[in-house]
């Protein structure tokens, strides 16, 4: 068993949704075998696109939550770029209601601005009252410094609220389809420069200092952004950051295939950026691994590269990619990897019932991880309604064997209970 308090050999006894006892030789009415596996607090994903309401062809709250549970997640934060978006309490309430009967806890991020248009602030106080703690216009960057300042100032009046930025300056990134660099020149595809991300991260660190508000940087992808976050943290600013698995496992060279499955915003970057993300994960600069799970229906991802929408699936491969690409090669220890996937993101989102520690009285939101199983990514076997994974055919190590949500096994031996 591994949680924020350390590593030990133990059974976990659960009743009425809570952990009752932790120790050797415990017996219960029904038992889940975890021999040879690691029991950990359930994983927490700060960044998931569930597409409902508005784009249920690609994903629904139910299918997305099932994919999450199969990936070992017990809590996910739904991004607000639905149609209509999460700038309206009735929309957020309906997302939460559907999430409440799904296989994973679904939290709804609220919009920063009305319609995610980057101008007037959304009714953040009303969304906060419904439980939103993360506010973001994700998919769009809050480009106006003055709007970002007002959002940060307002968020300081809401305890635990954090402003999450999709850091890509549209005046630099718009019209680009991949990372601007050697590969974009060679392929003749218009690029999105690393500095589109860097200038926003630099600016928002300054605004965090000016306002005292909390900023979280979504899907950090550049060496420059990692360095900016590192120095902001060294100055004691309330800044956190996440990285997505595709930004530590894939480079812009993949775009040479012209396969739109490799199109994502921010884009896959250079090998140098990938190396910097790994260092940032290892040295604590980056706080969380978040998937940016972005399902797209097959027809839309079959368009030419320049016309296809950005985004890739993530929920069912994140844990195995972390184990295969970071833990196995020794970039992270297993406890460090689990911290990035569970208790550190739980703390950012203020999810007291997730991320452990696994102790008597705590909510029984757990996952049991088999570190030794190897499996091949087959898009047809994913629970997501969409198929746009860039890892088709890859052999990965490690998988969630069981997932337990408030004491109820929702995934047993790799199978969802419904
Ligand atoms: Zn984004």
Give every kind of bound small molecule, once each: zinc ion
Structural class: alpha/beta
- What is the topology, as strand order, of the major beta sheet? 5-16-17-18-19
> Gap between N and C termini, in Å?
27 Å
CATH topology assignment: TIM Barrel
Poorly predicted sequence stretches spanning 5 or more consecutive residues: none
Please give the CATH class.
Alpha Beta
Q: Tell me the CATH superfamily.
A: Metal-dependent hydrolases
Gyration radius over CA: 20 Å
Residue share in helix: 25-40%
Strand fraction band?
Answer: 15-25%
CATH architecture assignment: Alpha-Beta Barrel
Q: What's the multimeric state?
A: single chain
How many helices in DSSP terms? 13
Reported for the largest beta sheet, the result is: 5 strands, antiparallel
Number of strands: 19
Helix and strand arrangement:
Blueprint: E1 2-3, E2 6-7, E3 11-15, E4 18-23, E5 38-41, E6 43-48, H1 61-70, E7 73-78, H2 89-100, E8 105-108, H3 124-129, E9 134-136, H4 145-155, E10 162-165, H5 170-173, E11 178-179, H6 182-187, E12 191-192, H7 194-211, E13 215-217, H8 223-234, E14 239-243, H9 245-249, H10 271-282, E15 288-289, H11 298-301, H12 318-327, H13 334-349, E16 366-376, E17 395-405, E18 408-412, E19 415-416
Parallel strand pairs: 6-7, 7-8, 9-10, 10-13, 11-12, 13-14, 14-15
Antiparallel strand pairs: 1-2, 3-4, 5-16, 16-17, 17-18, 18-19
Helix pairs in contact: 4-7, 7-8, 8-10
The structure holds zinc ion.
Zinc ion (ZN) binds at residues 138-139, 166, 218-219.
């Amino acid at each position: 068993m591994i949680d924020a308090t350390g590593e030990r050999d133990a059974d976990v006894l659960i009743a009425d949704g809570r952990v009752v006892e932790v120790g050797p030789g415990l017996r219960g009415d029904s038992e889940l075998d975890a021999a040879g596996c690691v029991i950990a607090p359930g994983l927490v994903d700060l960044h998931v696109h569930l597409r409902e309401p508005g784009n249920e062809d690609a994903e629904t709250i139910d299918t997305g939550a099932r994919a999450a549970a199969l990936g070992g997640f017990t809590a996910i934060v739904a991004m607000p770029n639905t149609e209509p978006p999460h700038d309206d309490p009735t929309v957020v309430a309906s997302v939460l209601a559907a999430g409440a009967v799904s296989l994973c806890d679904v939290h709804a991020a609220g919009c920063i601005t009305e319609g995610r248009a980057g101008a007037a602030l959304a009714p953040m106080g009303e969304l906060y009252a419904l439980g939103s703690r993360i506010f973001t216009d994700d998919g769009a960057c809050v480009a106006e410094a003055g709007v970002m300042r007002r959002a940060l100032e307002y968020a300081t009046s809401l305890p635990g609220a954090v402003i999450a930025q999709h850091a890509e300056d549209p005046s630099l990134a718009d019209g680009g389809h991949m990372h601007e660099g050697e590969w974009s020149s060679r392929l003749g595809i218009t690029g999105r420069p690393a500095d589109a991300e860097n200038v926003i991260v630099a600016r928002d660190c300054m605004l965090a200092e000016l306002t005292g508000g909390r900023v979280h940087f979504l899907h950090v992808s550049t060496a420059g952004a990692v360095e900016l976050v590192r120095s902001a943290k060294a100055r004691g600013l309330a800044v956190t950051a996440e990285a997505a698995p595709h930004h530590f496992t894939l480079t812009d060279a993949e775009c040479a295939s012209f396969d739109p499955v490799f199109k994502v915003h921010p884009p896959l970057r250079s090998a140098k950026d990938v190396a910097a993300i790994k260092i940032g994960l290892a040295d604590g600069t980056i706080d969380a691994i978040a998937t940016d799970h972005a399902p797209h229906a097959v027809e839309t991802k079959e368009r030419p590269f320049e016309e296809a929408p950005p985004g890739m699936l993530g929920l069912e491969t994140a844990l195995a990619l972390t184990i295969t690409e970071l833990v196995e090669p020794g970039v992270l220890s297993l406890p460090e990897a689990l911290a990035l996937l569970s208790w550190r993101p739980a703390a950012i989102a203020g999810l007291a019932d997730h991320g452990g520690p696994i102790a008597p009285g705590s909510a029984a939101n757990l996952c049991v991880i088999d570190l030794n199983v190897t499996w091949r990514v087959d898009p047809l076997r994913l629970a997501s309604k969409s198929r746009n994974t860039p890892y088709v055919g890859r052999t990965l190590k490690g998988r969630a064997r069981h997932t337990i949500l408030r004491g109820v096994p929702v995934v047993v031996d790799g199978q969802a209970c419904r």
